[in-house]
Design a protein that fits this description.
With 153 residues, this protein is α+β, with helices and mostly antiparallel strands. It has a single domain, classed as ECO RV Endonuclease, Chain A (3-Layer(aba) Sandwich). Helices cover 28% and strands 28% of the residues. It has three helices and eight strands, in the order E-H-H-E-E-E-E-E-H-E-E. The strands form two sheets. A five-stranded mixed beta sheet has the order 1-6-5-3-2.
Length: 153
Amino acid sequence: MTEIILDDHEMIMVRIVGIMRQHANISAKVKDMKRDTRSGEEIHMDGFMAEYAFGKWKNLFVDLSTKMRSGGYDLKDKHFKFDIKTTRMKNPSLNVMPKPNDEIDIYILSTIQGNSVLFLGWCEKHEIIKEENLTNFGYGSLYSLPKEKLRPL
């Protein structure tokens, strides 16, 4: 596991980009597929915080744009396109929507606490997108792998 801690200035940027992305999606009438009780702004802030922390750690370009976002990858390097999944749950699992994104090569699970992002593990798309990994936590079907089944980072 790797922990990346963001400073106060980075956290201000995370808040601004997260809020702006949420409002861009609302303006574009993007269907909200959240499976969480938190606000869309909070979810977007957490998502961008994990993306930014991963980019900072791996020295990858982070898209700071606030245009409408639906699907696609979060970051990429010379070989792979990454989708960074994040949660604030104590015992997290990597969860992927039932309609997998064809652009993604690798899924990464992270958790957030305060200004810290902890990267717990990763898997390739073919390892999670399997019938045996389909589950339902009360918000509809999704693919899920517990953190113990992920490869270490």
